[in-house]
Structures are given as C-alpha cells and as structure tokens.
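Exam review. A common question shows you a sequence with its structure tokens and asks you to describe the fold in words. Practice with the pair below. Do the first one on your own.
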Amino acid sequence: MKRDNTDSNSDIVKQLIRLSIPTMVEEILVTVLQYVDVAMVGHLGEDATAAVSTTTTIGWLIGGVIHAFGIAILALMSRSIGEKNGERVEKLSRQAVLLVVACAVIFGTASLILSPFIPVWMGADERIRADASRYFFIISLPMLFRAAELILASSIRATLDTRSPMIVGLFSGLLNVPLDYLFIYVFGWGVKGAAYATAICYVVGGSLMFLIFARKEEFNFSFRTVTPDGKLLSEIGKIAVPAMATHVTSCLGYVVFAGLVSGMGTTIFAAHSIAVNAETVVYIPGYGISSATSAMIGVSLGEKNERKFRTVSRASVFMTLGIMCINGLLLYLFAFPFMSLFSNSGPVVELGGQMLRMVALSEPFFGLMICMQGIFYGMGRTKNVFYIETFSMWCVRVFFTFLVVRVWNLGLREVWFCMIADNITKAVLLTISMIIEMRGRMNSAETAASG
C-alpha cells in the first residue's frame, strides 16, 4: 500500500468517532424496538414473553442472512469510493436493489409458509405455540421493507454517511413505542398487537431507507438502470456467502442452544430470553463502532492508504474495549433493576439478574470479538470469521450446553458459563488471526518497498 500523509492520525481517529456515534445511536435505537416489545409483552405474563421470544432466534437467522449481502455491498462499495470509481459504485447500488427484491421473495415466502411449524421445532410449550406462530407470521409479512432497511443501509454507510440510517432508526424506534402501547393495551391485542407494531415499523423504516438511498448522488439511481451484472453479483457472492454461512451456522447454533434451554421450563426460558435481550444494550455500541470501522477500512483499502488502515484498526479496538468495560460495569451494578424493567415475575427477575452479573465480566471479550469482525468484514475477508464462528459455536457453546442440560442435568448458571466460554474463544481466535493478517501485510509492504 502507498503511504498517504494527507490526514494525520488524530484526524483519522476523529473521523472514526464522528462516523461511529451515529451508528452506535442507530444500533441502540433498533434494540429499543426489540426492548419495547419484550418489556410491554413481559408485563402480560411469562407465557406472552415466551411466545414472543420463541421465534427470536429464527428472526436473527433471517436478518443475518440478508445482512450478509449488506456486508458484501459495503466492502466492495466503500473500496470503490476510496478508488474514486463512480461508475462501479452506481453499478453496485443497482445490484443492491435487486438483492433486496430477491431476499424479500425468498425469505418472505419461506417465513410465511413455515410460521406454523417453527414454534414446534423450537420446543415451545403447546399452550404458547399459536401466539408464537401468529407473531412470527405478522412480522414476516413486510419482508421487502426489512430487506431494504438492512441492505440499503449498508450501501448508504459505504459512502461514509452514517447519520441517515441513524435518523431512520430513530424514527422507527420512537414510532414503535406508541404503536405497542396502542395495540397491546388500548386495543387489547396482546402478543398480536406487538407483532403489528413491529411490522408497521419495518414498513416505515424500509420505505424511508429507500428514499434516502434513491436520493444519493453517488448512486445516481433509476429503476430503468436496474439490471443484473453477473460479474458484480459474483464478487458480492464471494464475500456474502461466507458471511451468510457465518450467520447461518451461528443462528442455527442459537436455535439449538435456545431449544436446549426452552426444555428446562417456562420460567427458566423466560429468564434466559429476557436476560439475553437485556444484555444486548451493553454490546450494541460495539456493533455501531464495528459498522463505521468496516466502512473506513474499505475506503482506506481503496485509497491504498496503509497508515489509515492501521490507525482505524487500532482506534476501533481501543474505543470498543473502553466502552465495553464501562458498560460491563454498569450491567453488573444494575442487573436486577434492569431485569425488572422487562418482567414483573420475581423468579424471572432474580434468575435473570444472576445471569447478567455473570456475563457482565466477559463483556470486554465480546467487544473485542465484534471489533475484529468489523475489520475483517471491511476487508472483505469473511471466511476467517466463518471458520472461527463455526468452531466456537458448535464445539464450545452447543456441545457443552448439551452436556450441561441433557447429561449432567445442571442449571441455567452452567449454561451461561458455556455461552461466556464461546464469546471468549471467538475473541481470542479472531485476535490471533488479525495479528497474523497484520504481520503479513507488514511483510508485503516491506517487500514492495525494498523492491
């Protein structure tokens, strides 16, 4: 890579911070949408909470697979922007729209057809299966808008515009609060009302994201120019398929993991599900930094700016670790009050609070894992993440959880030890892989300089 001294290290760090703040806010607001559902439904009772939570992992699976295309689009488009290749950026934006439609047709249809069977596969109690199925069916109806929000947001971030997706997330998150209250309590629709509120927010968020996307000068978008480009789709596929496989193997692991826990009883599963959702707010800022990091890494590669690449990588690590240490401490101190926001069941709050205090101590490792993923995704190196995710999820989390639940007949505490061990393993292996990558780049740069 060529050295480019146009921007100082401090300028690069400031730019990363500027881009990270909106993405962190956006991620937090998206999580608020999920929290509102869990909190409002949680006060309807344990059965309602379990009905909403039963299909959560499947929702993550679908969202993760769709987002894999966004990861590929961001990696390729940000690099093209760094290269100042406007024509390639426009072509990539058109492929993004095609992928939105394809994902909506494939995953939307599959979700609607399979919605009656998913609660059964997840091992849900028979009395909550109907509500769980109905909830998943309703939130799957606006799949076109959900895909647009995920994929087009990545395209927008590739232009180093992180504010626009944040604004969309803010509007959707704020809209979800009154809709949830109206449908759940005023109309008395319960779990079904929460689903309607979420579906409407998907429609609004996806529509706004498309309007912002279509107005971007860099994309010069027109429906008349949207045609498949085999070469670009192949490039997208090479990055997206490993990222997709990562999400699939991870979420399938979560499905098996959640299935094992759901068989431990409704109270234990409710405590587990709420605690998992409650923990999300702690590490969500890390994903915000990761998104901004991916975009800046891609641009630095396009610019052939090795110094910028290294500065962004290091700054991302320090920022993420700092935030995760603070958030982990707060989670430990306020674990029980936090749980009480989502459930009025004493046993659920007590058990969930104990789990949150345990996991709080491992949050820096989770942050390191997220940070390394962001760097690798920005480079388009998605295979590294896939191999490590697959090994750790299935050989650490799922395998030992199976032993804990089915062989040793232990409790939720030991299950969460398996989850913590999985997160630490991923963080360590990804960091080692990144160190090897960095040394390889240094050796290549030194060889090029001496030549």
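Now try the second one, then compare your answer with the model answer below.
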Amino acid sequence: MIRLSEIAGICGGTLRGPDVAIGEEAFIDSRAVVRGGLFCAFHGETSDGHEHVAAALAAGAGAALVDDPGAVGDASPLVIVPDVRDAMGALAADHIRRLRENLAVIGVTGSVGKTTTKDLIAAVLPGPTVATRGSLNNEIGLPLTALRATPETRFLVLEMGADKLGDIDYLTSLVPPDIAVVLAVARAHLGVFGGIEQIARAKSEIVRGLRPGGIAVLNADDARASAMATLPPGPVVRFGREPRDPDDAVTVSASDVELDSLGHASFTLGDPGGTARVHLGLVGEHHVTNALAAAAVAFALHVPRDDVARALSGRAASSPHRMAVSTRDDGITVIDDAYNANPDSMAAALRALQVLGRGRRTVAVIGAMLELGVAEEEEHVAVGTLANELGVDLLIAIGGLAARAGRQLPADRVRFCADLDEARAAAHENLRSGDVVLFKASNGSRVWKLADEWAGNR
C-alpha cells in the first residue's frame, strides 16, 4: 500500500481529497477496475480517460491520477500531475527501485516474436513472476506491468517495443533490465525508421540500457542482433541453431529440429552442461528461436536444463492472435496469427500454413503490412510470390497493399476484397470443411476481427 501524499511526492503532483492509502497497481480502462488501485486518466485517440474518472472511482478505484482536473468536476481523491504519462513512469521507476533487492528484471525486444518469447520466459522461471500482459510494451504498458510487481515477485518480464529511436532508451531509464534479450532485427516499421540499420540501433538501446554487470542474451542467427555483443556492460549469452561457425560461440543451441504433422517443432536443447529434448506445442518452426531465447534466459539464471525443457514442452500460445490454432465443428482449421505482420513474420506464417495444411486445401486471408515506407510494394509482391511458390490454394487479399501480393497468383487462386466486409463474404463463400485458413496482417488492418469470428471468439 502507498499513501496518496507519497504518490504526489514521487511524481511532482498535488493531492485533492483525503490522503488515503491505496494499492500500487494501476489501470487505464475504467471498464476493468482494479479495486483499490490507481486509475490513470490518459488522453487517448478516441477517448479521454478524464471522462471516466468518476465511473472508475465509483466502481472501486482507490484514487485517480489526472493532469486536467477541470475535466473531472469535484471527483476525489485525486493526484493532480503535470503529465500522466511521465507520472506513471516515475511511479514505476520508484516502485521497482524499492523491490530491486529480491527482483530480477528481464527485458525482451526484437522485430518479431517478442510476445511469444516473453510468455515462454515467464513459463520457465522458477519463482513468482509478473510479465507483460499481451503486448503492453510501450511507455504506458511498461509502467502498468511494473506496478503489478509485489514484494513476493522474483522475476519481472518486460516486453519492450519501439516505434522510433529513443523509445527503448526511455523504457530502460525507468526499469533497467538485469537481462536484455534481442531476438531479431527484421523489416518492421521500415517506413518509420527509414532503414534496417536504424531499426538495429533502436533495438540495441535495450542492451545499452542494462544495469551495470547486466547480461545480454542475443540471437546468434541474426547478424545484427549478434553484433550487439560489444555493447553490454556485462556477460553475453548467445543462442542459435546448429551447425554454426566454430568462431561464433553459441551458449544455448537447438539441433535435430523436426516438425510433426501439426506443425509443432521438437529439437534438442543444448548448453555447456548437456542436452535435453523439447517438444513445443506452438505451431511453426520459427518458434524454435523464441524457445531458445527463453532457454538462454533460464541458463543465465542457473535454471536446470531439464526443468527448462519440461516447462517449454507442450507450451502453446498464451497471448491472443499469435499462431493460435483451432478446429471448428465444421472441420475448418483456423490459424490466427493476426495480431501484427511484417515481411518476416508473414513468411513464417505462410510456411506454417503449408506445413499444417499438407494434404488439405490451404487458404490465406491477408491484409496490409503497414509502416514499410518505400519498401511496401516490393515487400507485398514478395509475400505474394512466396504464397504462390508454397502452393497456397486460395489467397483472400484485403485492400490495395494486399492486392499487390494477390497479383502474384493466378486469377483462379485469389479473391480481391476492398474491405473487411467483402473479405468476410469471400471467406463465407469460399471456405469449406477440411480447409486450413490463415489470418494474417498488421494490427491496423483489423484482420484480427475476422480471425476472432472464424475462431469462434465472438
């Protein structure tokens, strides 16, 4: 518990109302109240949290954090601050400083695989763990996660995303990690960053932001991630696939990778002490990399290899819209990987569709990959070329960018749709029992709405 006067002191605010003690967990959605917690009123794109302060307090919030007191009437108790975002960051930083003696912080970044890897890391850690929910990986999500930690928490797993240079610098300034994981530097947000070297620079901020003596866990199979080994203030643990260049030491490795008929990968996990077999419940060979990253973190924390292998084996997707596979009553198998997309993750999803759909009819429902800048046409053409090469039986392309992919397939294997409504109709018209259908696009394309419908989530 923390008194409101303490909160005001930490974030440079003033108190309105009684100086009560409240829980330290914060929330931003007045529809999902943390009873006794702190409601943080953000100015969103479509809604202003200040409009919901009264409702949050009535529903059980302990207090509200606001920067526009004139918009909340006579509501109380409040902590009034110059900027809610900055105040939340200050609260999170102070909160973790007070817990730090018995807490290890693991930060995870990369262009692909962050959320799945974060979930796998949380699964292999041997003590009370708090991890980012979903993909709350920005300047709002990270404080929300950090403030969920308690004195009993031993591990804090933080997904860290970046839309521009400096984003991860800011996140690590709030909560410097003890272990920093870099998965890959891929072609995501090219239009924002202006090139892949700038993306690499942004991802490297997590390594530069380590605590003194902190450990960098780097993907040896990604040249740009591996090159960050010169940056950290402490040890480096590399993970990667074998066989490898003998001059490029890999501490945690995967060998003898196999895929079963459902697309689940198994592999031999190796570290300097020996090997163990892992059988993933995740769909797609690309998840071997994510599992290796989790195993490398566990190795850095001295978790026994056999315990790690057991924790990873059978592990399925924990967060929504990430290679979640389900089979409907009508016999259609749905692969929902619609949370986000870039050229590398799109290619991985199409290859997973090919494996899972062997002997069956395969359908890919794709929308745009956003924020690719001048590379957008080239990258969408490449996706369509790959879909054709892999033998996707039907491509449902939603919108103008996806249409560029669709033009790489014969006319009888593609349906062009202007929007989600047309795609919904095309799916209902063309999908039939026994098909395997993939839903994939950038989050802003909202293809996840169709995935939810077909997977029976709404």
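Model answer, second protein: The two ends are 38 Å apart (CA to CA). The CA atoms of residues 64 and 413 lie 54 Å apart. Full marks require stating both points clearly.
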